[in-house]
What we know:
This protein has one helix at 2-26; strands at residues 39-41, 45-50, 54-64, 71-73, 82-88, 91-96, 108-110, 115-125, 142-148, 151-152, 175-179. The chain has 182 residues and is mainly beta. Strands 1, 2, 3, 5, 6, 8, 9 and 11 form an 8-stranded mixed β-sheet that branches. Strand 5 and strand 6 (91-96) form a beta hairpin. The chain is globular, with a radius of gyration of 21 Å. The N and C termini lie far apart (60 Å).
Amino acid sequence: xxxxxRIASFxxxxxxxxxxxxxxxxxxxxxxxxxxxxxxxxxxxYTLRPTSVGYQAEIGxxxxxxxxxxxxxVNCGGATGVQLEKRVGIAWQGVWSPVIPLCLSPPITVxxxxxxxxxxxxxxxxxxxxxxxxxxxxxVTGEYRAIWGSVLSTYQDWLPFGDPxxxxxxxxxxxxxxxxxx
Length: 182
């Protein structure tokens, strides 16, 4: 009987351990760096600081060209379209993108083997205000990734501007954003 109780206890413990590991693997938490991503953030954690009208932060990013050709980034005076996606459950949801002027500057070029460094200035107006852009979720604290739009493998000065890089090449490593209390 004692042997049967030990086996049952071991089985229950094993099930608890497996369940705990499985739950932790899908739960958002402290991000680990995905070194395969061409787009890397300079940190794995950022703080959104409250202002009188919204949250703000700066995220340093580096794009390393490990492709077989030059990368072209469509921009307006250096402003580019970077969208932030937040992990909501097991899915990623677009929750923030910047306001960008409508102009066309010469493309930012990143030759093979080169890197391009820039900063993403994040501003999100508080819900219910007329300050934009705003985060589309009430709880902004969480796990994020950045998706860079209009990053191309070819370029021309008319629409469409070129062939987009695959989205996985324009997606950053995961990181966390934590909103300080207002």
